[in-house]
Amino acid sequence: MNKFLKIALLLALIFSSQILLFSQDFEEEEEEVVATALQEISVSRLFEMIQEMGTDVFVQDVIVKSSAGDEKYLVDKLFFKEYLIPMPQQEVVSLYLYNVQFDLEAKHALVFSGWKFLKLNIINLKSSCNIHFEDCSTSGSYPIRIENSSFSKNMLFTGNESISSIQISGSTFANSLDFDQDFDNVQLRDCHFVADSLSFAKADDELMHAQLDFSKQAFGEIVLANLDFDNLGFENVFSLNLAGTEVDKLNLFKLKLFAADFTDLNINKALLGDSLDISHFIAVQNFDFPAENTNLPWYNLSGEKLCLLSSETAGRPEIYQAKTDHQ
Questions:
Q1: Residues 6+ apart with CB under 8 A from 55
Q2: 130-143 in b/e burial notation, b at 16+ Cβ within 10 A?
């Protein structure tokens, strides 16, 4: 009996020591994920880092601020100036922006111009200035990834060459996210669009402004899921602009919108949607979609939401909604 008792005690000691080792490992792992203190660098230093790193550019745990001497990187665009960051070399480049803050003067945009990306990962970024990807392209099948980031000003993609894929999740946009470039696949999930009151108060009241803009571009597939939009009561700020857009497949799930513009939207293959909370209007003039591959419950659009935008006169279009059978 004593022999069995000794064996049991030995097993208990071994088991307890394993638990202790496991708990110590767990504590060490927790310490490893503690956020690193951010180092403040200038725009000049950012340029130097990009040039030094070759084809894999890691910018991590830094706050980028305008400093004396950064003026040499400003490009004068007549009415404004911007920091223009050209591609560091002719080969394709992977750019990783991890835990970065762009705390520049709001009037100076940061422009990545002519980059050809193998990978572009933007994780936990905060920006107080406009960020513009100009004439950029991708090589290979890796999607552009933007996660858990916050943009106080505009985020803009422009260019003539189509980009393969972009995935954006868990991020906040206070001005506009503008796709002025063709994409094969766009996925936005779990994002918030909250209009910045100071910026939109200064915007031209005679024009309509979109928080998420796909207008007049071509896309393979667009997936919008679990997005909410708050225009803070600005009547000339609408949530989603798909006017004049050409898209093969459009998927809309669990969206909270103020208003959407589907004028001249052409969907070629499929339209799927559900759980759409639209508080004001959807502009649908010349909206074309496939009859057989469309699944969009009518209750998502009911309540006098459908309208036409009249643009016969210059300036902000008038909203026409039929509220009687005669109209």
A1: 89, 91, 92, 93, 94, 118
A2: bbbbbbbbbeeeeb
Q: How confident is the model at residue 17 (pLDDT cuts 50, 70, 90)?
A: very low
User: What is the rounded distance in angstroms from the CA atom of residue 66 to the CA atom of residue 43?
Assistant: 6
Instruction: Tabulate helix, strand, coil % of the chain (nearest 5).
Output: 15, 50, 35
Task: Render pLDDT for 50-96 as a digit per residue (tens, 0 to 9).
Answer: 999 989 999 999 999 988 888 888 998 878 889 999 988 778 999 99
For residue 267, give the amino acid letter. I
| Cβ neighbours around 37 below 10 Å, total | 6
Helix (H) or strand (E) holding 123: strand 116-127
Q: Write down the residue that tokens 């954006």 correspond to.
A: 168
pLDDT of residue 301: 64
- The mean pLDDT of the chain is 84
Q: What is the DSSP letter of 97?
A: E
- Alpha carbons 109 and 26: distance in angstroms, whole number: 43
CB 232 within 8 A of CB 195: yes
Structure tokens at 145: 């990834």
Specify the 3-state DSSP secondary structure of 42: strand
Spatial distance between the Cα atoms of 88 and 91, rounded to a whole number of angstroms: 9
Name the region of 99 (left: φ>0; alpha: ψ -120 to 50; beta: rest): left
The 8-class DSSP code of residue 324 comes to: S
210-262 pLDDT, tens digit per residue, is: 999 999 999 999 999 999 999 988 888 889 999 999 999 999 999 999 989 99
Dihedral pair phi/psi, residue 31, rounded to 5°: -65, -30
Cβ atoms of 150 and 172 within 8 Å: the answer is yes
- Residue 282 CA to residue 224 CA, distance in Å, equals 16
The 10 Å Cβ neighbour count of residue 271 is 20
Nearest to 128 by CA among 77, 75, 82, 174: 174
Provide the residue type at 116 as one letter.
K
